[in-house]
């Protein structure tokens, strides 16, 4: 399925392709640059030309919902700005920030205060997001503020009736669940009461509709995890990790997912070892094991970045795999961290989508 001629003409003249962020049966999402009235700016393109015929009707419905919600949210400064829309493509501004599950704002009370303010602005505009249970739809901006993205399930209301109030309540309850995960000590007594009380609609959904939703998304559409790695990250990656660790030269490994233009989802293995030549041996071993498909990329590193507890910082490794290097900088705490990561960046493997999103980091 191709884009309409008018959409294709605008994108050919104004869009510069960058890195693929996501591709599924509902759309292709990529980051690049867009020529706006203010000049060329960072932006995100959603397009429907690679959507299969059997999901196109639903994909077009979700596309229309996002377009309407973004238009209504213009000027609220709570999410991406709608820059251009066509029949089967739209361009929205890029929010300079990382997803909640990558940023992990532990103890950041100011962030959750900002998030509550963002919901308040959406409510005043009559917008219910309806997909805020997913941490990847909450962004931690470089400015420290909260932003929301992915309005495909958003509902817009002209009047605040019962359905609006239920959906707005659920948006707030989902935000408070994230606050409980990252800043539980900051929950107020009223917020704890909200967390303890689902709306009747939410309880009904959990008992009925969500089971159907999971059956469809996990079975038919192959969605299984928040990072977008699908079955490969959930099912294949743990098996591959065990196989890689069997090699005596390997100290540790971490596997992350990234959007791939050819296969949809790719796996990227970062292997902590001393031998740079180990990569070819590992690839041969994985192929001979007759297990899951080996990772598209295997990179041997001198050491994996780790948090205070010693666990690999997969949130940083995922951004490396996705070539969104400029988003890593705010997560660096010192020049030592930057120097440590520079070796990993200089040897990274996923260069097919390499773009100029790395100006803030040390160059190779």
UniProtKB/TrEMBL annotation:
Molecular functions per Gene Ontology: protein serine/threonine kinase activity
**What superkingdom does the record give?**
Bacteria
Give the Gene3D superfamilies listed for this entry: 3.30.300.30, Transferase(Phosphotransferase) domain 1
Keywords of the record, alphabetical order, are: Kinase, Serine/threonine-protein kinase, Transferase
Q: Does the keyword Repeat apply?
A: no
Q: Where is the AMP-binding enzyme C-terminal domain?
A: 244-311
**What is this protein's record name?**
Serine/threonine protein kinase
Instruction: Please give the organism.
Output: Bradyrhizobium iriomotense
């Amino acid at each position: 399925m191709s884009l309409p001629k008018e959409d294709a003409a605008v994108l050919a003249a104004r869009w510069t392709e960058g890195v693929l962020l996501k591709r599924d049966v509902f759309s292709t999402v990529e980051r690049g640059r867009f020529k706006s009235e203010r000049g060329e700016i960072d932006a995100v393109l959603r397009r429907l030309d690679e959507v299969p015929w059997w999901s196109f009707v639903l994909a077009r419905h979700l596309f229309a919902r996002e377009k309407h919600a973004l238009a209504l949210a213009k000027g609220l400064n709570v999410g991406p700005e709608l820059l251009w829309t066509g029949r089967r493509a739209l361009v929205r501004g890029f929010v300079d920030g990382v997803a909640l599950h990558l940023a992990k704002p532990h103890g950041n009370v100011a962030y959750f205060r900002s998030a509550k303010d963002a919901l308040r602005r959406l409510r005043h505009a009559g917008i219910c997001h309806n997909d805020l249970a997913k941490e990847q739809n909450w962004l931690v901006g470089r400015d420290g503020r909260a932003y929301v993205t992915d309005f495909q399930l958003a509902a817009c209301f002209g009047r605040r009736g019962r359905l609006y109030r239920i959906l707005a309540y659920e948006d707030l309850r989902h935000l408070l669940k994230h606050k409980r995960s990252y800043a539980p000590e900051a929950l107020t007594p009223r917020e704890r009461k909200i967390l303890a009380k689902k709306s009747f609609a939410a309880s009904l959904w959990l008992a009925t509709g969500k089971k159907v939703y999971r059956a469809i998304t996990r079975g038919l559409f192959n969605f299984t995890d928040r990072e977008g790695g699908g079955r490969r990250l959930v099912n294949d990656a743990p098996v591959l990790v065990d196989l890689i660790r069997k090699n005596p030269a390997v100290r540790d490994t971490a596997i992350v997912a990234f959007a791939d233009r050819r296969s949809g989802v790719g796996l990227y293995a970062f292997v902590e070892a001393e031998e740079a030549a180990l990569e070819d041996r590992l690839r041969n071993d994985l192929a001979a094991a007759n297990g899951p498909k080996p990772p598209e990329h295997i990179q041997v590193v001198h050491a994996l970045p780790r948090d205070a507890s010693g666990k690999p910082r997969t949130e940083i490794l995922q951004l490396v795999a996705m070539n969104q290097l400029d988003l890593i900088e705010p997560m660096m705490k010192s020049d030592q961290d930057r120097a440590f990561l520079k070796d990993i960046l200089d040897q990274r493997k996923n260069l097919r989508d390499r773009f100029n999103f790395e100006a803030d980091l040390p160059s190779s």
